[in-house]
Amino acid sequence: MMMGISKEGGGGGGGGGRKQGGGASPCAACKLLRRRCARECVFAPYFPADEPLKFASVHKVFGASNVNKMLQDLPEHQRGDAVSSMVYEANARVRDPIYGCVGAISSLQQQIDTLRTQLAISQAEVVHLRMRQAMSNSGSGITSSEEDDVSPPPPPPPPSHHDDHHNHRHHHQTRFLFSMDMVMDQSTTWGSGHCGYAI
Fold it and tell me: Which of 29, 84, 93, 103 could form a disulfide with 99 if both were Cys (CB 3.0 to 4.6 A apart)?
């Protein structure tokens, strides 16, 4: 009798194990839709049973039939990216029912524009500082060179041989004219006296 009870207990345990092993756990989509999850379920690879909110938001925004159609129309290697995109857009639509992901994109675009403006201002300040530094270096170089170029004026050139000859000739002519004047004066004086004596 004990063996029979033990056998029944063993048989019941084995039956329970087979039931659990034979019936696969439904994915989050089939569980939400309350349908049997087939082996070839298109939702199962992307909506596991331990992430029920993932499919709930997608189903609320797009609808299960539309999601099913989109996944079947895509190649299998693109379905994962499509599901990620739909989940992102659905969560954004839940947070912001009016703008959805457009609001998030607009906010990010505003941040990009603000950062670009700040970057342009910083670049302009860098250029301004570089120009001031270049002008400062150029000004100090010009001052030092000007100081080096300052020198006393050159002495006057020595008189040339032509100038000496001209001055000597002018002096000789002056002496000759002065001698002629003296001779003329003496002749006049002597002539005047001699004529008076004759009379």
Answer: 103
Any idea where the domains of the chain sit in the sequence?
A: 28-95, 99-135
Cα(26)–Cα(43) distance, rounded to whole angstroms?
10
**C-alpha span between 172 and 156 (Å, rounded):** 26
Please give the full DSSP string across 34-49, using - where no structure is assigned.
Answer: T----TT-SSTTTS-T
pLDDT tops 80 at residue 3: no
Residues 115 and 102: beta-carbon distance below 8 Å: no
User: Identity (one letter) of the amino acid at 32?
Assistant: L
Per residue in 106-115, pLDDT (tens digit) is 999 999 999 9
CA angle, residues 44, 50, 56, in degrees to nearest 5: 70
Rounded to whole angstroms, the Cα distance separating 37 from 55 reads: 14
